[in-house]
Amino acid sequence: MDLALPGARPDSVASYLKALGILRLLHEQHRSRMKGSWQRQVVVQESSWMASFEASPDGNVESDVFVLTGAIAADELVNFFLCEYEPTPILSPWNGSTGFYPKDNKKTLDAVRQSQTKRLTAYRETIAIAQQIVNEMGLKKQPSGDDKNKLIRQLRDRLPDLAVRWIDTCALVSNDDIQYPPLLGTGGNDGNFEFSRTFQQQLQNLIDFETGKPTADAETLLKAALFGETLPGLSFSGKIGQFDPIAAGGTNAAPGFEGKSRVNPWDFVLMMEGTLTFQARLTRKFESSTHGALTYPFAVRPTPMGYGTAAEDENIRAETWMPLWSRPTRFDELHVFFGEGRAKLGERDKTGVDFALAVADLGKFRGIDAFVRYSFQERNGLSYFAVPLGEFRPRDRSGDSSTTNLLSPILEWLDRFRRVAEPKEAPAAIKRVHRLLETRIVEFAQAEAQPGARGNNALAVLVALGEVEQTLDRSLTWVREVHLPPIPWLSSRWIEACNDDSVEFRLALALAGRGRYRKVVDDPETQLPRLIDYPEPDRGLRQRLVRVRGSQSKPSWKDSDAITVWQGGTLTDNLLILLRREEIEAQQGRKQESAQDADPTNSHSHSSSHPATARLRDIQAWIDGTVDDQRLEAIARGLALVKRHRSTQGKDSREEINAVPAAFALLEPVVRRVVPAPTEEGTLSKDSKIVLPRVSGLWSRLEVGDCQTATELAIRRLRASRFRLAVRPFELRRDRTRRIAAALAFPIAEETSRQLLDRICYRIVENKEEKKEDEL
């Protein structure tokens, strides 16, 4: 039998802990062995945080609701808490105002100490032992420093096991020091708000300390806490601290300027019982001589990103990710899971970004359906609130394009980048791109369960990586001071994961695949010069964009040289600069770095990964100016980090061949220089190729937009090489000429180039020149 508890939802830390407290108390104090789970149900929308869920036609929303599974009905559950529940002895004598010291207000503690009900027997015994320890130590006021540490150790050694569980929840006792996990502030208090004293006060509102019977309002309040029933006209107040920002009151918390704190006593009591699920641990690596570190279930170093209100200067004390599971589970199983609940991604278990990556790929395999992310952020002056930042739902899948598989080659680098970017001394531009990158990674991990959105988020990460490297290149002096290497090469899996099939992506993929070494050799048979291409995977677009050089396995930074040519102008300007530089390098015959690269028979030089090429329809869009140049360049910067670029383009149709401007068809073979040899019949040879000599002055004309002179030079060159051309010089606008010239930077397939050349040539048919049917 299932019993839904609509009053226990993960829309606040308080409500989440309340669910754990209910399950724990039923497991330890009730005769039945209940199981608990989180189930998606339609509930009435009450919280602004829930507005992110998809609303049903009646205005309600779907939310996760805690469900009990077992032989218990609603009336029996209510009766258990009203009449049988025995509160856990939660005490914090190391804090002030707890009633253990002469000047403390002892009213609340004395009420428990002097109670008669059997339900508080364990509490009375624990108070007596704690008071004895305080007296033996001669403490007259709240201790601090070594006295505080000694007191906590004494309490942990001598108090009953139930009370020790509270100590282990809010403090970690070790041989060296005492540390305080983030969930319960600084040892069970949040500023002046002391949790154990408030727990006792709220118990007084629910249980008659003399008879053990429930108070007059206890049943109504309990049904509201369990089943979400409304409480019209019922007056109740109290503090709940950081655990529920809405119930805490304050500005804009109610109609009018300010709302008062309204806390259901059962919500606070069950929440405190739920905190005992979380136990601090001390861990260290095997055989390590270093001191151990505090670990807490699903707690990470706060990361102010991945949500709409994120700001760089936010004061955040902690961040925790609470798991949601749909399989009914006993509390003893759950307690073991929480005991080992640390986010691990290799050896990195530090930040919210790491947790998001771990959740995206590993959470589902542990039976977790989702994680709710909470951040303990400073609000209203010095107060901290546990702000819910949304749900992360991992999906049950595997594959090479999973989040961590894509990012695994650079995880170590990301960690190094984080360490040097977070200090205040880091340049503002570095901090900006670091935040951008980690935000995109969190969004990418979160999108794992959103069909259709993942590719765009993967592309956003890749674009952010490209922007990071651009910024690092501009801050190269600082980069070398902090010894930060370039971003390692990314695998080709990124191409499939990021491909959104846009014109900009396809052109960027072709552009990023540039980087082929050219060498003129003499053909042994014809003795004619021939230009041969050797793939150079490590010398693609990346070296033109930033000062990064080196092998595939370990790129390194390089001092300024003529190879890196990218400047701050438009993409058209930079593509023209790139083409001119490549022409100069081809003329100079730039040497290769090793004999292995220079050997055309070497297997490394003949990779099975053919460079990507552009389709003419996309080049036409570029020439017409319908492409988003900034997006294209941003994508190209990201794709430049990818090690290999496989060809993913289809074959150009005859219509696409005829659609591009004739000026482009004329200039392309002249710039390519390796072209099919012309035959006496005016056709193009299928086997033989020639290398066109360099055309002096061509690029200077194209850069200034002089189409007529540039095309005239191209026509002269082709006719001198025995091509029969059916075109005359063209006169086009300056801006269109420059776009056409820049379009030559996008590599096209060899067969496409052949068809373009064939388009502008005459053919000899029965001793007559026949012009092609298409218009030039």
Task: List the main descriptive attributes of the protein structure presented here.
29 helices, alpha+beta, 14% strand, four-stranded antiparallel sheet, single chain, 776 residues, elongated
Topology:
Layout lengths: L1 E4 L7 H17 L5 E9 L17 E9 L4 H11 L22 H7 L7 H16 L8 H14 L2 H10 L1 E2 L4 E2 L9 E2 L2 E2 H10 L13 H10 L22 E2 L6 E2 L5 H11 L5 E3 L9 E3 L3 E2 L15 E9 L4 E2 H9 L12 H11 L7 E10 L3 E10 L10 H5 L3 H11 L6 H19 L7 H21 L1 H6 L11 H6 L4 H10 L3 E7 L6 E7 L6 H4 L2 E3 L4 E3 L13 H18 L6 H4 L17 H9 L4 H11 L14 H6 L2 H11 L1 E5 L5 E8 L6 H6 L3 H14 L13 H10 L6 H10 L3 E3 L2 E3 L6
Antiparallel strand pairs: 1-3, 2-3, 2-14, 4-5, 6-7, 8-9, 10-11, 12-13, 13-15, 15-16, 17-18, 19-20, 21-22, 23-24
Helix pairs in contact: 1-9, 3-7, 4-5, 5-6, 7-9, 11-14, 14-15, 15-23, 18-23, 20-28, 22-28, 25-27, 25-29
